UniProtKB/TrEMBL annotation:
Name used for this protein in its record: Cytochrome P450
Pfam families, per the entry: p450
Keyword Kinase: no
Organism: Tetrapyrgos nigripes
Needed co-factor(s): heme
Residues spanning the membrane: 28-47, 53-74
Key words of the record: Heme, Iron, Membrane, Metal-binding, Monooxygenase, Oxidoreductase, Transmembrane, Transmembrane helix
Length: 540
Protein backbone atom coordinates (compact mmCIF):
# COMPACT_ATOMS: atom_id res chain seq x y z
CA UNK A 1 0.00 0.00 0.00
CA UNK A 2 2.93 2.34 0.73
CA UNK A 3 4.14 1.67 -2.80
CA UNK A 4 0.75 2.49 -4.24
CA UNK A 5 0.68 5.78 -2.27
CA UNK A 6 4.13 6.70 -3.61
CA UNK A 7 3.21 5.68 -7.15
CA UNK A 8 -0.11 7.51 -6.93
CA UNK A 9 1.58 10.72 -5.67
CA UNK A 10 4.19 10.57 -8.42
CA UNK A 11 1.52 10.05 -11.09
CA UNK A 12 -0.57 12.87 -9.67
CA UNK A 13 2.44 15.20 -9.76
CA UNK A 14 3.21 14.31 -13.38
CA UNK A 15 -0.40 14.59 -14.54
CA UNK A 16 -0.77 17.99 -12.88
CA UNK A 17 2.42 19.28 -14.48
CA UNK A 18 1.23 18.12 -17.90
CA UNK A 19 -2.23 19.57 -17.38
CA UNK A 20 -1.16 23.05 -16.21
CA UNK A 21 1.54 23.28 -18.84
CA UNK A 22 -1.02 22.65 -21.58
CA UNK A 23 -3.95 24.58 -20.17
CA UNK A 24 -2.29 27.55 -18.50
CA UNK A 25 -4.06 30.75 -19.55
CA UNK A 26 -3.97 34.45 -18.66
CA UNK A 27 -6.75 33.76 -16.22
CA UNK A 28 -4.72 31.08 -14.39
CA UNK A 29 -3.89 32.68 -11.05
CA UNK A 30 -1.84 31.28 -8.19
CA UNK A 31 -4.98 30.94 -6.08
CA UNK A 32 -6.73 28.87 -8.79
CA UNK A 33 -3.72 26.54 -9.08
CA UNK A 34 -3.35 26.18 -5.30
CA UNK A 35 -7.09 25.56 -4.85
CA UNK A 36 -6.96 22.86 -7.52
CA UNK A 37 -3.79 21.17 -6.24
CA UNK A 38 -4.25 21.37 -2.50
CA UNK A 39 -6.88 18.66 -1.90
CA UNK A 40 -5.43 16.10 -4.33
CA UNK A 41 -2.63 14.46 -2.24
CA UNK A 42 -4.86 14.36 0.85
CA UNK A 43 -7.68 12.65 -1.06
CA UNK A 44 -5.15 10.19 -2.47
CA UNK A 45 -3.90 9.35 1.02
CA UNK A 46 -7.47 8.49 2.04
CA UNK A 47 -8.27 6.52 -1.11
CA UNK A 48 -5.15 4.35 -1.41
CA UNK A 49 -4.06 4.28 2.25
CA UNK A 50 -5.33 4.90 5.79
CA UNK A 51 -5.65 8.70 5.65
CA UNK A 52 -3.41 9.05 8.72
CA UNK A 53 -1.41 12.24 9.10
CA UNK A 54 1.85 10.49 8.18
CA UNK A 55 0.32 9.16 4.94
CA UNK A 56 -1.04 12.60 4.06
CA UNK A 57 2.35 14.23 4.68
CA UNK A 58 4.12 11.55 2.62
CA UNK A 59 1.66 12.05 -0.19
CA UNK A 60 2.15 15.86 -0.23
CA UNK A 61 5.95 15.54 -0.10
CA UNK A 62 6.17 13.09 -3.00
CA UNK A 63 3.56 14.99 -5.02
CA UNK A 64 5.31 18.37 -4.65
CA UNK A 65 8.79 16.92 -5.22
CA UNK A 66 7.60 15.15 -8.36
CA UNK A 67 6.05 18.32 -9.72
CA UNK A 68 9.16 20.38 -8.96
CA UNK A 69 11.53 17.82 -10.52
CA UNK A 70 9.26 17.35 -13.51
CA UNK A 71 9.09 21.13 -14.13
CA UNK A 72 12.86 21.53 -13.77
CA UNK A 73 13.69 18.58 -16.03
CA UNK A 74 11.23 19.77 -18.64
CA UNK A 75 12.74 23.26 -18.64
CA UNK A 76 16.23 21.80 -19.19
CA UNK A 77 15.11 19.15 -21.66
CA UNK A 78 15.28 19.17 -25.47
CA UNK A 79 11.44 18.86 -25.47
CA UNK A 80 10.96 22.43 -24.24
CA UNK A 81 9.97 24.63 -27.23
CA UNK A 82 12.77 27.08 -26.30
CA UNK A 83 15.40 24.35 -25.89
CA UNK A 84 17.37 25.54 -28.91
CA UNK A 85 17.65 29.13 -27.71
CA UNK A 86 21.02 29.53 -25.97
CA UNK A 87 21.26 31.07 -22.54
CA UNK A 88 22.73 30.71 -19.06
CA UNK A 89 21.84 27.46 -17.34
CA UNK A 90 20.18 28.94 -14.27
CA UNK A 91 18.07 31.31 -16.35
CA UNK A 92 16.57 28.33 -18.24
CA UNK A 93 15.73 26.59 -15.01
CA UNK A 94 14.21 29.37 -12.94
CA UNK A 95 13.19 32.99 -13.24
CA UNK A 96 14.22 33.49 -9.61
CA UNK A 97 17.79 34.10 -10.68
CA UNK A 98 17.16 37.02 -13.02
CA UNK A 99 14.51 38.27 -10.61
CA UNK A 100 17.20 38.49 -7.95
CA UNK A 101 19.41 40.41 -10.40
CA UNK A 102 16.50 42.75 -11.16
CA UNK A 103 16.16 43.59 -7.45
CA UNK A 104 19.80 44.77 -7.45
CA UNK A 105 19.05 47.23 -10.29
CA UNK A 106 21.76 45.71 -12.49
CA UNK A 107 19.63 43.65 -14.85
CA UNK A 108 20.49 45.77 -17.89
CA UNK A 109 24.23 45.15 -17.44
CA UNK A 110 23.83 41.43 -16.76
CA UNK A 111 21.56 41.05 -19.82
CA UNK A 112 24.32 42.65 -21.88
CA UNK A 113 26.88 40.18 -20.51
CA UNK A 114 24.55 37.34 -21.49
CA UNK A 115 24.13 38.71 -25.00
CA UNK A 116 27.90 39.21 -25.30
CA UNK A 117 28.34 35.57 -24.37
CA UNK A 118 25.40 33.84 -26.09
CA UNK A 119 24.59 36.05 -29.08
CA UNK A 120 21.67 38.20 -30.25
CA UNK A 121 18.92 35.82 -29.05
CA UNK A 122 19.12 34.58 -25.47
CA UNK A 123 16.81 32.53 -23.29
CA UNK A 124 16.75 34.72 -20.18
CA UNK A 125 14.12 32.77 -18.27
CA UNK A 126 12.36 29.39 -18.54
CA UNK A 127 9.73 31.11 -20.69
CA UNK A 128 11.49 34.31 -21.65
CA UNK A 129 13.59 35.25 -24.68
CA UNK A 130 15.61 38.40 -25.23
CA UNK A 131 16.43 39.82 -28.67
CA UNK A 132 18.94 42.53 -29.59
CA UNK A 133 18.92 42.32 -33.37
CA UNK A 134 17.40 45.32 -35.19
CA UNK A 135 15.20 42.89 -37.17
CA UNK A 136 13.32 41.83 -34.02
CA UNK A 137 12.00 45.33 -33.24
CA UNK A 138 9.09 45.41 -35.68
CA UNK A 139 8.21 41.76 -35.00
CA UNK A 140 7.85 42.50 -31.29
CA UNK A 141 6.49 46.06 -31.27
CA UNK A 142 5.22 46.61 -34.83
CA UNK A 143 1.72 46.44 -36.28
CA UNK A 144 1.39 42.66 -35.97
CA UNK A 145 3.63 42.52 -32.95
CA UNK A 146 2.95 41.36 -29.43
CA UNK A 147 0.76 42.88 -26.71
CA UNK A 148 1.76 43.67 -23.16
CA UNK A 149 1.42 40.71 -20.82
CA UNK A 150 1.61 39.83 -17.16
CA UNK A 151 4.64 42.07 -16.60
CA UNK A 152 2.12 44.93 -16.77
CA UNK A 153 -1.31 43.46 -16.16
CA UNK A 154 -0.36 41.79 -12.89
CA UNK A 155 0.03 45.26 -11.36
CA UNK A 156 -3.67 46.05 -11.69
CA UNK A 157 -5.42 46.27 -8.35
CA UNK A 158 -8.93 45.01 -7.76
CA UNK A 159 -10.03 48.13 -5.86
CA UNK A 160 -8.65 50.69 -8.32
CA UNK A 161 -9.06 51.25 -12.07
CA UNK A 162 -5.91 50.44 -14.07
CA UNK A 163 -3.81 53.25 -15.49
CA UNK A 164 -2.88 53.41 -19.19
CA UNK A 165 0.31 51.38 -18.71
CA UNK A 166 -1.54 48.35 -17.39
CA UNK A 167 -4.13 48.22 -20.19
CA UNK A 168 -4.01 46.09 -23.32
CA UNK A 169 -5.91 45.77 -26.62
CA UNK A 170 -9.01 47.88 -27.22
CA UNK A 171 -9.06 49.19 -23.64
CA UNK A 172 -5.56 50.54 -24.13
CA UNK A 173 -6.41 51.94 -27.55
CA UNK A 174 -9.45 53.84 -26.24
CA UNK A 175 -7.66 55.28 -23.20
CA UNK A 176 -4.67 56.20 -25.31
CA UNK A 177 -6.86 58.55 -27.43
CA UNK A 178 -7.16 60.92 -24.47
CA UNK A 179 -3.44 60.75 -23.82
CA UNK A 180 -2.74 61.41 -27.50
CA UNK A 181 -4.85 64.58 -27.27
CA UNK A 182 -2.91 65.61 -24.16
CA UNK A 183 0.35 65.35 -26.11
CA UNK A 184 -0.75 66.57 -29.55
CA UNK A 185 1.31 69.30 -31.23
CA UNK A 186 -1.30 71.88 -30.19
CA UNK A 187 -1.32 70.74 -26.57
CA UNK A 188 2.47 70.79 -26.41
CA UNK A 189 2.45 74.50 -27.25
CA UNK A 190 0.13 75.13 -24.32
CA UNK A 191 2.70 73.67 -21.96
CA UNK A 192 5.47 76.09 -22.98
CA UNK A 193 4.73 78.45 -20.14
CA UNK A 194 4.94 75.71 -17.51
CA UNK A 195 8.27 74.48 -18.88
CA UNK A 196 9.68 78.02 -19.10
CA UNK A 197 8.58 78.80 -15.54
CA UNK A 198 10.12 75.67 -14.03
CA UNK A 199 13.30 76.06 -16.10
CA UNK A 200 13.63 79.62 -14.75
CA UNK A 201 13.31 78.31 -11.17
CA UNK A 202 15.98 75.70 -11.74
CA UNK A 203 18.27 78.27 -13.33
CA UNK A 204 17.88 80.43 -10.19
CA UNK A 205 19.19 77.50 -8.17
CA UNK A 206 22.07 77.03 -10.63
CA UNK A 207 22.85 80.79 -10.51
CA UNK A 208 23.12 80.62 -6.74
CA UNK A 209 25.34 77.52 -6.87
CA UNK A 210 27.57 79.19 -9.46
CA UNK A 211 27.83 82.32 -7.29
CA UNK A 212 28.70 80.31 -4.18
CA UNK A 213 30.97 77.91 -6.06
CA UNK A 214 29.21 74.98 -4.40
CA UNK A 215 29.17 71.44 -5.69
CA UNK A 216 25.72 70.34 -6.81
CA UNK A 217 24.24 66.96 -7.54
CA UNK A 218 22.81 67.94 -10.90
CA UNK A 219 21.03 64.57 -11.33
CA UNK A 220 18.92 65.35 -8.29
CA UNK A 221 18.16 68.90 -9.48
CA UNK A 222 16.99 67.53 -12.82
CA UNK A 223 14.63 65.19 -10.99
CA UNK A 224 13.19 68.17 -9.10
CA UNK A 225 12.72 70.00 -12.39
CA UNK A 226 10.92 67.18 -14.18
CA UNK A 227 8.80 66.39 -11.11
CA UNK A 228 7.66 70.01 -10.69
CA UNK A 229 6.76 70.16 -14.38
CA UNK A 230 4.81 66.90 -14.32
CA UNK A 231 3.01 67.88 -11.10
CA UNK A 232 1.92 71.21 -12.56
CA UNK A 233 0.95 69.64 -15.88
CA UNK A 234 -0.93 66.70 -14.42
CA UNK A 235 -2.76 68.34 -11.53
CA UNK A 236 -2.17 72.08 -12.00
CA UNK A 237 -0.36 71.90 -8.64
CA UNK A 238 2.92 73.61 -7.82
CA UNK A 239 4.83 71.20 -5.63
CA UNK A 240 7.76 73.62 -5.30
CA UNK A 241 10.22 70.76 -5.10
CA UNK A 242 12.96 72.83 -6.79
CA UNK A 243 12.51 75.72 -4.39
CA UNK A 244 12.24 73.62 -1.25
CA UNK A 245 14.81 70.96 -2.13
CA UNK A 246 11.95 68.47 -1.84
CA UNK A 247 11.40 69.28 1.83
CA UNK A 248 8.15 67.29 1.75
CA UNK A 249 10.03 64.21 0.51
CA UNK A 250 7.71 63.57 -2.47
CA UNK A 251 10.44 62.18 -4.67
CA UNK A 252 11.98 60.03 -2.04
CA UNK A 253 8.79 58.16 -1.36
CA UNK A 254 7.77 57.81 -5.01
CA UNK A 255 11.20 56.58 -6.09
CA UNK A 256 11.49 54.30 -3.06
CA UNK A 257 8.12 52.78 -3.81
CA UNK A 258 8.54 52.27 -7.54
CA UNK A 259 12.09 50.96 -7.25
CA UNK A 260 11.16 48.36 -4.64
CA UNK A 261 7.90 47.24 -6.17
CA UNK A 262 8.61 47.32 -9.93
CA UNK A 263 11.21 44.51 -9.85
CA UNK A 264 8.50 42.12 -8.72
CA UNK A 265 6.85 42.42 -12.12
CA UNK A 266 9.60 40.05 -13.35
CA UNK A 267 8.05 37.41 -11.12
CA UNK A 268 4.30 37.80 -11.69
CA UNK A 269 3.28 34.75 -9.65
CA UNK A 270 4.76 36.28 -6.50
CA UNK A 271 2.84 39.48 -7.17
CA UNK A 272 -0.22 37.36 -7.78
CA UNK A 273 0.14 35.79 -4.32
CA UNK A 274 -0.72 39.23 -2.90
CA UNK A 275 2.22 39.00 -0.48
CA UNK A 276 2.91 42.65 -1.23
CA UNK A 277 -0.30 43.73 0.42
CA UNK A 278 1.05 42.47 3.77
CA UNK A 279 4.47 44.12 3.71
CA UNK A 280 4.50 47.16 6.01
CA UNK A 281 6.55 49.36 3.67
CA UNK A 282 4.14 48.62 0.82
CA UNK A 283 1.10 49.33 2.98
CA UNK A 284 2.64 52.65 4.08
CA UNK A 285 3.81 53.60 0.61
CA UNK A 286 0.41 52.78 -0.89
CA UNK A 287 -1.33 54.88 1.71
CA UNK A 288 1.03 57.79 1.08
CA UNK A 289 0.54 57.38 -2.65
CA UNK A 290 -3.22 57.37 -2.23
CA UNK A 291 -3.18 60.46 0.04
CA UNK A 292 -0.88 62.17 -2.41
CA UNK A 293 -3.21 61.36 -5.33
CA UNK A 294 -6.28 62.48 -3.38
CA UNK A 295 -4.63 65.82 -2.43
CA UNK A 296 -3.56 66.41 -6.03
CA UNK A 297 -7.03 65.66 -7.39
CA UNK A 298 -8.88 67.77 -4.84
CA UNK A 299 -6.60 70.75 -5.42
CA UNK A 300 -7.10 70.45 -9.21
CA UNK A 301 -10.88 70.18 -8.77
CA UNK A 302 -11.08 73.09 -6.27
CA UNK A 303 -8.75 75.44 -8.09
CA UNK A 304 -9.36 74.39 -11.71
CA UNK A 305 -6.56 74.50 -14.26
CA UNK A 306 -4.88 77.67 -15.48
CA UNK A 307 -4.23 75.97 -18.81
CA UNK A 308 -5.44 72.99 -20.82
CA UNK A 309 -3.23 70.64 -18.82
CA UNK A 310 -3.01 66.84 -18.90
CA UNK A 311 -5.93 66.63 -16.45
CA UNK A 312 -8.06 68.69 -18.85
CA UNK A 313 -7.53 66.11 -21.59
CA UNK A 314 -7.70 63.00 -19.44
CA UNK A 315 -10.89 64.22 -17.75
CA UNK A 316 -12.21 65.03 -21.22
CA UNK A 317 -13.22 68.53 -20.10
CA UNK A 318 -13.66 69.38 -23.79
CA UNK A 319 -16.42 66.72 -23.98
CA UNK A 320 -14.99 64.82 -26.95
CA UNK A 321 -16.06 61.38 -25.72
CA UNK A 322 -19.48 59.81 -25.27
CA UNK A 323 -18.87 59.00 -21.61
CA UNK A 324 -16.91 61.11 -19.17
CA UNK A 325 -14.03 59.18 -17.60
CA UNK A 326 -14.31 58.35 -13.91
CA UNK A 327 -12.47 60.51 -11.40
CA UNK A 328 -10.47 57.52 -10.07
CA UNK A 329 -9.34 56.62 -13.58
CA UNK A 330 -8.05 60.13 -14.16
CA UNK A 331 -6.29 60.19 -10.79
CA UNK A 332 -4.53 56.91 -11.63
CA UNK A 333 -3.43 58.28 -15.01
CA UNK A 334 -2.33 61.57 -13.43
CA UNK A 335 -0.08 59.66 -11.04
CA UNK A 336 1.23 57.62 -13.97
CA UNK A 337 2.13 60.86 -15.78
CA UNK A 338 4.17 62.00 -12.77
CA UNK A 339 5.94 58.66 -12.36
CA UNK A 340 6.52 58.03 -16.08
CA UNK A 341 7.54 61.60 -16.84
CA UNK A 342 9.84 62.35 -13.91
CA UNK A 343 12.86 60.09 -13.67
CA UNK A 344 12.87 59.07 -17.34
CA UNK A 345 13.48 62.63 -18.52
CA UNK A 346 15.77 63.52 -15.63
CA UNK A 347 17.86 60.37 -16.28
CA UNK A 348 18.23 61.46 -19.90
CA UNK A 349 19.24 65.00 -18.86
CA UNK A 350 21.91 63.66 -16.51
CA UNK A 351 23.23 61.33 -19.19
CA UNK A 352 23.67 64.27 -21.61
CA UNK A 353 25.57 66.35 -19.03
CA UNK A 354 27.68 63.36 -18.02
CA UNK A 355 28.82 62.48 -21.52
CA UNK A 356 29.23 66.03 -22.84
CA UNK A 357 31.28 67.15 -19.84
CA UNK A 358 33.45 64.05 -20.25
CA UNK A 359 34.17 64.82 -23.84
CA UNK A 360 35.83 68.16 -24.64
CA UNK A 361 35.26 67.99 -28.43
CA UNK A 362 31.53 67.40 -28.05
CA UNK A 363 31.37 70.05 -25.32
CA UNK A 364 33.07 72.66 -27.51
CA UNK A 365 30.87 71.93 -30.53
CA UNK A 366 27.73 72.07 -28.42
CA UNK A 367 28.62 75.30 -26.69
CA UNK A 368 29.43 76.92 -30.03
CA UNK A 369 26.08 75.90 -31.52
CA UNK A 370 24.21 77.23 -28.49
CA UNK A 371 26.21 80.49 -28.30
CA UNK A 372 25.51 81.16 -31.99
CA UNK A 373 21.83 80.52 -31.46
CA UNK A 374 21.58 82.84 -28.46
CA UNK A 375 23.46 85.56 -30.31
CA UNK A 376 20.90 85.32 -33.13
CA UNK A 377 17.96 85.56 -30.73
CA UNK A 378 18.35 85.47 -26.92
CA UNK A 379 14.64 84.76 -26.34
CA UNK A 380 13.64 82.07 -28.84
CA UNK A 381 15.61 78.91 -29.52
CA UNK A 382 16.13 77.98 -33.15
CA UNK A 383 17.18 74.63 -34.56
CA UNK A 384 19.83 72.99 -32.38
CA UNK A 385 20.83 69.87 -34.32
CA UNK A 386 24.01 69.24 -32.36
CA UNK A 387 22.17 69.42 -29.05
CA UNK A 388 19.55 67.01 -30.40
CA UNK A 389 22.38 64.71 -31.49
CA UNK A 390 23.93 64.90 -28.00
CA UNK A 391 20.55 63.94 -26.51
CA UNK A 392 20.03 61.02 -28.93
CA UNK A 393 23.52 59.73 -28.26
CA UNK A 394 22.99 59.91 -24.49
CA UNK A 395 19.64 58.11 -24.87
CA UNK A 396 21.39 55.47 -26.92
CA UNK A 397 24.08 54.71 -24.36
CA UNK A 398 21.94 55.20 -21.28
CA UNK A 399 18.27 54.65 -22.18
CA UNK A 400 16.08 55.42 -19.15
CA UNK A 401 14.23 52.10 -19.48
CA UNK A 402 17.39 50.05 -20.03
CA UNK A 403 15.96 46.55 -19.68
CA UNK A 404 13.14 47.43 -22.05
CA UNK A 405 9.38 47.06 -22.07
CA UNK A 406 8.49 43.35 -22.29
CA UNK A 407 5.73 41.90 -24.43
CA UNK A 408 4.07 38.49 -24.28
CA UNK A 409 2.92 35.92 -26.83
CA UNK A 410 -0.84 35.74 -26.15
CA UNK A 411 -2.48 32.51 -25.06
CA UNK A 412 -4.72 31.15 -27.80
CA UNK A 413 -2.54 32.68 -30.54
CA UNK A 414 -0.73 29.44 -31.44
CA UNK A 415 2.64 31.10 -30.79
CA UNK A 416 4.67 33.66 -32.67
CA UNK A 417 7.54 33.51 -35.10
CA UNK A 418 10.14 36.25 -34.86
CA UNK A 419 12.19 36.19 -37.99
CA UNK A 420 15.36 37.94 -38.92
CA UNK A 421 18.75 36.47 -39.60
CA UNK A 422 17.42 33.61 -37.53
CA UNK A 423 13.85 32.33 -37.21
CA UNK A 424 12.66 31.78 -33.65
CA UNK A 425 9.39 30.17 -32.69
CA UNK A 426 7.98 31.43 -29.40
CA UNK A 427 5.21 29.41 -27.76
CA UNK A 428 2.15 30.98 -26.14
CA UNK A 429 2.89 32.68 -22.84
CA UNK A 430 6.54 33.45 -23.69
CA UNK A 431 7.71 36.80 -22.39
CA UNK A 432 9.74 38.67 -24.99
CA UNK A 433 12.29 41.29 -24.05
CA UNK A 434 14.28 43.76 -26.10
CA UNK A 435 16.74 45.19 -23.58
CA UNK A 436 17.46 48.67 -24.87
CA UNK A 437 20.83 48.95 -23.15
CA UNK A 438 22.09 45.92 -25.12
CA UNK A 439 20.17 46.71 -28.34
CA UNK A 440 21.73 50.19 -28.46
CA UNK A 441 25.23 48.82 -27.74
CA UNK A 442 25.06 45.96 -30.22
CA UNK A 443 27.93 46.46 -32.73
CA UNK A 444 25.68 45.06 -35.49
CA UNK A 445 23.39 48.04 -34.94
CA UNK A 446 25.84 50.86 -34.13
CA UNK A 447 29.52 51.08 -35.13
CA UNK A 448 31.82 51.81 -32.15
CA UNK A 449 28.86 51.21 -29.87
CA UNK A 450 30.55 51.99 -26.55
CA UNK A 451 31.71 55.45 -27.65
CA UNK A 452 29.79 58.69 -27.23
CA UNK A 453 29.75 60.11 -30.75
CA UNK A 454 27.01 62.74 -31.32
CA UNK A 455 28.15 63.10 -34.93
CA UNK A 456 26.67 59.71 -35.80
CA UNK A 457 23.26 61.43 -35.73
CA UNK A 458 24.33 64.17 -38.17
CA UNK A 459 25.39 64.11 -41.81
CA UNK A 460 28.89 65.47 -41.35
CA UNK A 461 32.33 64.39 -42.49
CA UNK A 462 32.90 62.92 -39.06
CA UNK A 463 29.79 60.75 -39.35
CA UNK A 464 30.92 58.92 -42.47
CA UNK A 465 31.58 55.30 -41.54
CA UNK A 466 29.24 55.61 -38.57
CA UNK A 467 26.04 54.62 -40.30
CA UNK A 468 23.71 52.88 -37.88
CA UNK A 469 20.48 50.92 -38.13
CA UNK A 470 17.85 53.49 -37.25
CA UNK A 471 15.22 50.86 -36.39
CA UNK A 472 17.51 49.73 -33.56
CA UNK A 473 17.19 53.06 -31.73
CA UNK A 474 14.06 52.89 -29.57
CA UNK A 475 14.63 54.68 -26.23
CA UNK A 476 10.92 55.57 -26.21
CA UNK A 477 9.97 52.05 -27.30
CA UNK A 478 8.06 51.57 -30.53
CA UNK A 479 4.52 50.97 -31.76
CA UNK A 480 1.06 51.58 -30.40
CA UNK A 481 2.03 51.54 -26.73
CA UNK A 482 5.29 53.44 -27.07
CA UNK A 483 5.99 56.54 -24.98
CA UNK A 484 3.24 59.09 -25.37
CA UNK A 485 5.36 61.81 -23.73
CA UNK A 486 8.22 61.64 -26.21
CA UNK A 487 7.65 65.05 -27.84
CA UNK A 488 7.16 66.68 -24.50
CA UNK A 489 10.32 65.15 -23.02
CA UNK A 490 12.31 66.57 -25.95
CA UNK A 491 10.84 70.00 -25.25
CA UNK A 492 11.77 69.86 -21.54
CA UNK A 493 15.29 68.71 -22.35
CA UNK A 494 15.96 71.33 -25.00
CA UNK A 495 14.63 74.10 -22.73
CA UNK A 496 16.93 73.41 -19.80
CA UNK A 497 20.01 72.09 -21.57
CA UNK A 498 20.32 75.02 -23.98
CA UNK A 499 20.27 77.51 -21.08
CA UNK A 500 22.53 75.37 -18.92
CA UNK A 501 25.31 75.11 -21.50
CA UNK A 502 24.88 78.77 -22.50
CA UNK A 503 25.06 80.20 -19.01
CA UNK A 504 27.68 78.06 -17.29
CA UNK A 505 30.91 76.23 -17.71
CA UNK A 506 30.40 72.83 -16.18
CA UNK A 507 33.06 70.56 -14.69
CA UNK A 508 32.96 67.49 -12.52
CA UNK A 509 33.55 68.17 -8.85
CA UNK A 510 36.94 67.30 -7.42
CA UNK A 511 37.06 63.70 -6.28
CA UNK A 512 33.96 62.74 -8.29
CA UNK A 513 34.29 59.18 -9.61
CA UNK A 514 33.67 59.87 -13.30
CA UNK A 515 34.28 56.30 -14.47
CA UNK A 516 32.18 54.84 -11.67
CA UNK A 517 29.06 56.97 -12.17
CA UNK A 518 27.53 54.77 -14.85
CA UNK A 519 27.62 51.89 -12.37
CA UNK A 520 25.41 53.88 -9.98
CA UNK A 521 22.55 53.82 -12.48
CA UNK A 522 20.00 51.29 -11.31
CA UNK A 523 17.20 49.94 -13.41
CA UNK A 524 13.93 49.26 -11.65
CA UNK A 525 11.85 49.85 -14.80
CA UNK A 526 12.10 53.41 -13.55
CA UNK A 527 15.74 54.47 -13.26
CA UNK A 528 17.66 55.78 -10.27
CA UNK A 529 21.11 57.36 -10.39
CA UNK A 530 23.85 58.11 -7.92
CA UNK A 531 24.89 61.75 -7.35
CA UNK A 532 26.30 63.47 -10.43
CA UNK A 533 28.52 66.03 -8.72
CA UNK A 534 29.38 69.09 -10.79
CA UNK A 535 30.54 72.66 -10.29
CA UNK A 536 29.02 75.45 -12.38
CA UNK A 537 30.85 78.65 -13.25
CA UNK A 538 28.90 81.54 -14.71
CA UNK A 539 30.03 82.54 -18.21
CA UNK A 540 30.05 86.18 -19.22
C1 LIG B 1 13.45 60.85 -22.02
C2 LIG B 1 12.28 60.68 -21.50
C3 LIG B 1 11.42 59.44 -21.63
C4 LIG B 1 11.75 58.18 -22.03
C5 LIG B 1 13.10 57.67 -22.50
C6 LIG B 1 10.54 57.37 -21.97
C7 LIG B 1 10.47 56.03 -22.30
C8 LIG B 1 9.32 55.28 -22.25
C9 LIG B 1 9.25 53.88 -22.55
C10 LIG B 1 10.43 53.01 -22.96
C11 LIG B 1 7.96 53.49 -22.39
C12 LIG B 1 7.44 52.07 -22.50
C13 LIG B 1 6.53 51.89 -23.64
C14 LIG B 1 6.21 50.47 -23.91
O1 LIG B 1 5.71 49.72 -23.06
O2 LIG B 1 6.46 50.09 -25.03
C15 LIG B 1 7.20 54.66 -22.01
C16 LIG B 1 5.84 54.66 -21.78
C17 LIG B 1 5.16 55.77 -21.34
N1 LIG B 1 5.66 57.02 -21.11
FE1 LIG B 1 7.55 57.62 -21.41
N2 LIG B 1 9.52 58.17 -21.53
C18 LIG B 1 10.01 59.44 -21.32
C19 LIG B 1 9.29 60.54 -20.90
C20 LIG B 1 7.95 60.57 -20.65
C21 LIG B 1 7.20 61.74 -20.29
C22 LIG B 1 7.75 63.16 -20.13
C23 LIG B 1 5.93 61.35 -20.11
C24 LIG B 1 4.81 62.28 -19.72
C25 LIG B 1 3.75 62.00 -19.12
C26 LIG B 1 5.86 59.93 -20.37
C27 LIG B 1 4.71 59.14 -20.29
C28 LIG B 1 4.64 57.81 -20.66
C29 LIG B 1 3.42 57.04 -20.61
C30 LIG B 1 2.05 57.55 -20.17
C31 LIG B 1 3.73 55.76 -21.06
C32 LIG B 1 2.77 54.60 -21.26
C33 LIG B 1 2.30 54.62 -22.71
C34 LIG B 1 1.23 53.63 -23.06
O3 LIG B 1 0.99 52.71 -22.29
O4 LIG B 1 0.59 53.79 -24.12
N3 LIG B 1 7.11 59.49 -20.71
N4 LIG B 1 8.06 55.73 -21.92
Amino acid sequence: MTNSLALGSISLGLVNHLYWKKYERDSTTVSIVVAALLPQPAILAFVVKDGKIISILTSYTIFLLTMAISVLLYRMSPFHPLADVPGPFFARVTKLWSFYIATTGNLQRVMKEWHDQYGPIVRTGPNEVSFIGSDAVSGVYGLNGLPRGKFYTIRRESDRPPNLLFLTGQDHFRRRQRWNRAFSAESLNNYDEIVRGQAAELLDVFDQAAKDGTVINIAQKFTYYTFDIMGEMSFGKKFEVIKTNDAAGYLKFIIDFTSKVNSLAWLPWVWDMKILGFLPFVINAKKRMFDFARDCASSRIDEGGSTKDIWYHLMDEAGKEKEQPSLMEVIEDGILAIIAGTDSTSAALSAVVYYVVRQPTAYKALQKEIDDDFSRNPEVRGELPYLSACISEALRLLPPTPSGAPREVPYGSGGKIISGKQVTFLPEGTQVVIPLYSLHRNPDNFPNPEEYIPDRWLSTDKSSGLKHKSEAFIPFSYGQASCVGRGFAQKEMLAILSSLFYRYDIRFAEGFDVEGWEGTIKDFFTTTQGPLQVVLTARN
